Amino acid sequence: PPRAAASPHPRRRAPAPARRHAAMAKNADAKRQVGKRGSHGGSANRGHKKGQGALKAGSAFKKSNASSKEGRTAPTGETRVKTKGSHMRSESTIKRLNMYKHKPNIEKMREQATGPVRIQPDRRWFGNTRVIAQDKMQSFRETIAKGVEDPFSVVLKTSKLPMSLLKDTEGKTSRMDLLSVQPFQEVFSKRRQQKRVKLGSYDLEGLLANVEQRSDNYDGKRDGQLVQDPQTGQDLGAGSSSVQHAHKSEEIFNKGTSKRIWAELYKVVDSSDVIVFVLDARDPMGTRCQMLERELRKTKAHKHIVLVLNKVDLVPTWVSRRWIQHLMRDFPTLAFHASITNPFGKNALLNLLRQFSNLMKDKKHVTVGMIGYPNVGKSSVINTLKRKKVCKAAPVPGETRVWQYIALTKRLYLLDCPGIVPPTASDFNADCAKVLKGVVRAERIQSPSDYIDEVLSRVKKQYLLQKYKLPLDTEWADAEEFLTILGKKMGKLFKGGDADLDTTARVVLYDWQRGRIPYFAAPPEEPAAAATASTSSSSTAGAPGADSE
């Protein structure tokens, strides 16, 4: 058959060497794509080079992409997931989950290196860095002592400072001075004497001599428990006009002095970093425990002390100002009025406590302990700071019986302490002071009429007439006559029309302890302003019996 016409562009086959080179180039391109993920999520490097998949070049094993493997590659190609909100596990999450799988080897952790080890070379190993010159030591002691004694400055990092160098060791020589107690011959020589029991008398003659000496030194006027006159046999309580001489202390006056209450106080003191003494603005010095302040300054100098003058709404403004100026010489003092709805001084106290928490950054929590006499308002101050009733509070003493722990903020914690009463003498003056300070409850006093004389001496007559709505021309000579007039007006009568003096006296003491009767202790006068203060205090409502405080 005839051949077809030849095409003007005949199709030519490439020579064999050209085809071979094209195939090699295609294989090379395919090899270069190995180990790279495409848009379709293809396979990774298969071992021709070290990359995302292969462990090393020429290896057929690839890295694991398990969800629990550190440094794994996500399906999206991301090697270390850090995107917030991603459903993939981050590196920190993988490490934490892997940590849960393995328990720590306690025995290996407790092992101590016993073999020779290399110590890092340092010049401090060859010099005594704790040696200091005498003049530098003296300047250090003077500088730090000023900061420690100043109540308005805080010494930071006291645990890292040699605070023991500030004071000389007391009683160094007294411990070794054995010969001052007993002579050498009685202790160490052959003629030494054995110890014997210390008795008041070792024989009958000595006992009789001791009795005679005590009978000669006995003074009946100083005997507070004397009920009858030893010479006449007359009952001193009935025939004597001096109630103080025949006064017999009651059991109620020992409240606040028990071991249980002081054990609660020690718990609060040991647990607190800042100690707040709550005082009554009507009688700050009477409700201030100076014995405890001195002990804290001596044994726990690292604890900070703050004074809070509570119940400033019951006294004039100039009295609060003068008392604050007087108390600021010893410790930082703040005026305060405890009220959940209408407080005063709350922001100042909170700012001061926040400053203490900022200074104590090395501690996780800062604890503030509230300490003071009964019925001064410790629980009310805590309720005011929290803006709700978290502590049981009442206008009577002894409401708080155990210490309470209250969280004010994340770093500030408050400790409520029961009211404490320092030990005092068991006489009429001490018991009368406890009654008027609000330490004991008026309903538990057996003879409350004995303490009305002190109330009449401290309060102006016009305030009593105004409080109990008595006529302006009412006169009384003593407490018994005043209670008789007041009892008949209130209707506190016995059968027959006689006034019930004890019930009326309890009503007066109730009003006194709750602040319904105006009274305050006059603050000490400043030397420069003594003349001006005397004129202003005479023209302002005050306390006539404040001079006897």
Structure, explained:
With 549 residues, the protein is mostly helical. It has helices at 16-33, 91-101, 106-110, 134-149, 172-176, 184-187, 204-217, 236-239, 259-271, 290-299, 317-327, 346-359, 378-386, 428-437, 452-458, 461-468, 479-490, 501-513, 530-539; strands at 274-280, 304-310, 333-335, 366-371, 404-407, 412-416. It is elongated, with a radius of gyration of 43 Å. Strands 3-2-1-4-6-5 form a six-stranded mixed β-sheet, with helices on both faces. Helix 11 (317-327) links the parallel strand 2 (304-310) and strand 3 (333-335). Mean pLDDT is 77; it is low at 4-10, 34-47, 238-246 and 530-549.
Can you tag this structure with a few keywords?
549 residues, mainly alpha, six-stranded mixed beta sheet, 19 helices, elongated
| Lateral strand order in the biggest sheet | 3-2-1-4-6-5
Helix content: 25-40%
Please provide the ordered H/E string of secondary-structure elements: HHHHHHHHHEHEHEHEHEEHHHHHH
DSSP, total strands: 6
Strand content: 5-15%
